[in-house]
Structures are given as structure tokens and as C-alpha cells.
């Protein structure tokens, strides 16, 4: 029977779009399920402000009356203007191992892109770089970080079959903190602070931390400007991500840096929520909430979410100070395993720093590209 593609329009469609992932990965011990409520909000033009600057549609694939695939199509006009190209992004692809299904979904994205005058298709990418990005190509037997992605091995085979090529890869490392690493970092941090007059900021509670959230996004806008797939966050989008992420952060593991009373950098680490998200299984029931609360305060692994430093201080060692402060805070609480959650493989400067640690490159994810 032929594949039928339907646009996601109603709340019922959105629920089907989200639920498919839970069906495909049911019982998979490496997948960390997202919260369904947040995933539905992401699809809703009335709730996600990114629809204000991007054209987007989401689709479901049906076979024999059953949902067997899903995909989204995004034209991020701000990014296309930035790079001078005409890209349509595909996003959130999930599908059964069926070439007919995959071909129909990708064709739908290409048709949408051509209608908008686009010339190339790339992804998986979201509206912004704070959405999940990339397709897992290595590390299928590693637990997914909640800041990363998980896919089944056959996904890659289908994109290769369709002639997609590598545009960029992210690599993810697991690192172990040792007393030697901590001591060396602390000594370097002290020297840098003394030389440049940096002041480390510590936060005691969520309210205090969130006061600085808008400034964090200003740093992101400046520091991440040169990176692939990034565009500036406007006021509405800043608030969307503040609401989405900042309440789940443990203030102890958020560090900021000041220079002459100006915020110049930040780093965010999060105790691993992956196992807690597996227990929650997409819903904030009492059991799920308790699991997340426990993971937030008692853990042995942390995910390094974001680091940002303003351009004029990027070569001053500010990131060294931030990382030293974060890892000391984590170590004091018994957290000695770090997950990097994704670095462009071309970022040799950052990757070179991992030589000081016991480290393993255990995951890789890819952004594919193809001319239409």
C-alpha cells in the first residue's frame, strides 16, 4: 500500500507526532525520552515564537492507517540571510525501517523547500541551536544525554542511500575528573583571575540565577555568531528557552564571570537527567517528578550543556576559570564523570583540552546536506 503524508495541524496530530518516538524506542535502554508536553509546545505556532521568523510545517507518514514516520520542514530565513544560501531544514525525523516511508517524508520536505524557493536540504536541525541537532551515527550503545539525540542505526543507512553528504559532525566525549586534573585547573584559574581581574559569580537559588538569564542569551548571541546553524535569539525566543530550561538547572552548577561589573561569560552543567527521564517516560507524574528531583541533587555524572564567553575575552583564559569552577563544584558533590554533549569536530582548540583528562570519544552525530 502507498504511503500517505498528512500535515500536522490539530492537537491530535501533534500528539501522534510526539507519540511515534515513544513507540519506536519502547524498551530501548539507551534512549532518554523527552517530556511530551514540551515536544507538543515546540510544534504549536501559537506557543513557539520561532514560527515568527521561520516558515515551518510538520508531517506524519501513514501506512495501512498506522503512523510509521514523521518529519518537520523549516526555512530559517535569518540563517539563510546569514550564510547567503537557500536551505530548507529537515527536523525531528523518525521512521520505521522502510525506504518507501523515508523517501516520502524527505520528498515532502523538499517540495516544501522548493515552494519557498530553496535549493538545498540539510539537517536534522531545529529552529535554533538550542533545539536538538544532528543524526546519531556512532554510539548507539551509549546512554543519550538529554541535551543530545538518539537514533537507531538504520536511520543513517537511509540518508546515505538517498545521497545525503556530511556537512558537519558533532563529537561527544566522556571525561573523568581526577585530583591531578582538578589541581592543575585550579592553579591555572587562579593565575588567570589575578592577571585579568575576573570575578566568579556563584548562585544560591533559581530566582537569583534567572535574573541573569537574559544576559546569558546576549553572550550566546555574540559568542555563537560564527558557529554553523546559529542565529540571534530575539526577546520572545530568549524567554521561550528561559522558561524551558532555567527552572530545571541546579544553581550550584551554573557559573558566571564578571570583569569590571560586566558579565563576560558563563558555563552551565546539569547532573545527568537521562535515567530520570527514562523513569518519567514523557510525563511529569509524581514518580517522574521525584526521579528528576533526585537526579538534580544526587548524581555521579553531569552533562556540560553550554559555555559562552564574549569575543574580547575568548583568548584570555576565561573559559578555563569557568570550567575549573564548575568541575570543582561537581567534584565536591561526588560527580566525577562529565559528558560534553556535542562539540563540532573541527573545534580543535577545545578538543585539545581533553588531553588533560581521561577521555573517550563515544558518540558522533551528523548534519547532512544535499542539493535538491
How many structural domains does the protein architecture include? 2
Name of the CATH homologous superfamily of the largest domain: Gcn5-related N-acetyltransferase (GNAT)
How much is the average pLDDT? Answer: 95
Morphology: globular
What is the name of the CATH topology of the largest domain? Aminopeptidase
The span between the termini is 27 Å
Instruction: Please state the CA-atom Rg, rounded to the nearest Å.
Output: 21 Å
**What is the overall number of helices?**
13
- In the CATH scheme, the class of the largest domain would be Alpha Beta
Low-confidence stretches: none
**Helicity level:** 25-40%
* Major sheet description: 14 strands, mixed
Describe the structure concisely for a colleague.
With 372 residues, the protein is an alpha+beta fold.
Produce the secondary structure layout:
Layout: E1 4-7, H1 11-24, H2 36-43, E2 54-63, E3 66-76, H3 77-83, E4 87-95, H4 99-115, E5 120-123, E6 135-138, H5 153-161, E7 165-176, H6 179-196, E8 199-201, H7 206-210, H8 213-223, H9 235-245, E9 254-259, E10 262-271, H10 274-280, H11 286-297, E11 301-309, H12 318-332, E12 337-339, E13 343-344, H13 348-353, E14 358-371
Helix pairs in contact: 1-2, 6-12, 10-11
Give short descriptive properties of this protein.
2 domains, single chain, 14 strands, 38% helix, 13 helices, alpha+beta, Aminopeptidase, globular, 27% strand, 372 residues
Amino acid at each position: 500500500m502507498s504511503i500517505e503524508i498528512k500535515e500536522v495541524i490539530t492537537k491530535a496530530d501533534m500528539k501522534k507526532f510526539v507519540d511515534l518516538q515513544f513507540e519506536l524506542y519502547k524498551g530501548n535502554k539507551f534512549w532518554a525520552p523527552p517530556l511530551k508536553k514540551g515536544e507538543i509546545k515546540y510544534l504549536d505556532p501559537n506557543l513557539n515564537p520561532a514560527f515568527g521568523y521561520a516558515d515551518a510545517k510538520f508531517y506524519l507518514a501513514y501506512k495501512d492507517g498506522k503512523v510509521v514516520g514523521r518529519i518537520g520542514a523549516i526555512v530559517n530565513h535569518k540563517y539563510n540571510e546569514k550564510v547567503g544560501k537557500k536551505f530548507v531544514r529537515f527536523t525531528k525525523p523518525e521512521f520505521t525501517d522502510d525506504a518507501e516511508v523515508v523517501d516520502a517524508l524527505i520528498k515532502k520536505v523538499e517540495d516544501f523547500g522548493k515552494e519557498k524557493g530553496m535549493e538545498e536540504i540539510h539537517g536534522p536541525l531545529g529552529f535554533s541551536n538550542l533545539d536538538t541537532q544532528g543524526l546519531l551515527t556512532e554510539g548507539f550503545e551509549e546512554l543519550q544525554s538529554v541535551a543530545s539525540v538518539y537514533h537507531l542505526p538504520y536511520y543513517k543507512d537511509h540518508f546515505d542511500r538517498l545521497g545525503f553528504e556530511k556537512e558537519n559532525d558533532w563529537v561527544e566525549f566522556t571525561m573523568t575528573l581526577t585530583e591531578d586534573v582538578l589541581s592543575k585547573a585550579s592553579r591555572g584559574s587562579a593565575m588567570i583571575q589575578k592577571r585579568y581581574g575576573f570575578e566568579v559569580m556563584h548562585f544560591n537559588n533559581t530566582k537569583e540565577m534567572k535574573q541573569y538569564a537574559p544576559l546569558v542569551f546576549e553572550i550566546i548571541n555574540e559568542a555563537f555568531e560564527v558557529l554553523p546553524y546559529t542565529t540571534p535569539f530575539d526577546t520572545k525566543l530568549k524567554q521561550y528557552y528561559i522558561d524551558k530550561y532555567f527552572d530545571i538547572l541546579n544553581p550550584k552548577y551554573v557559573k558566571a564571570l564578571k570583569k569590571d561589573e560586566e558579565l563576560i561569560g558563563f558555563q552551565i552543567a546539569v547532573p545527568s537527567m537521562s535515567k530520570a527521564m527514562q523513569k518519567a517516560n514523557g510525563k511529569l507524574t509524581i514518580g517522574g517528578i521525584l526521579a528528576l528531583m533526585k537526579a538534580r541533587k544526587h548524581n555521579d555524572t553531569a552533562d556540560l550543556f553550554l559555555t559562552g564567553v564574549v569575543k574580547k575575552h575568548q583568548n584570555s583564559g576565561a573559559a578555563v576559570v569557568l570550567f575549573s569552577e564548575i568541575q570543582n563544584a561537581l567534584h565536591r558533590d561526588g560527580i566525577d564523570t562529565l559528558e560534553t554533549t556535542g562539540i563540532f569536530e573541527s573545534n580543535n582548540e577545545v578538543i585539545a583540552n581533553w588531553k588533560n583528562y581521561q577521555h573517550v570519544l563515544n558518540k558522533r552525530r551528523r548534519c547532512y546536506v544535499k542539493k535538491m
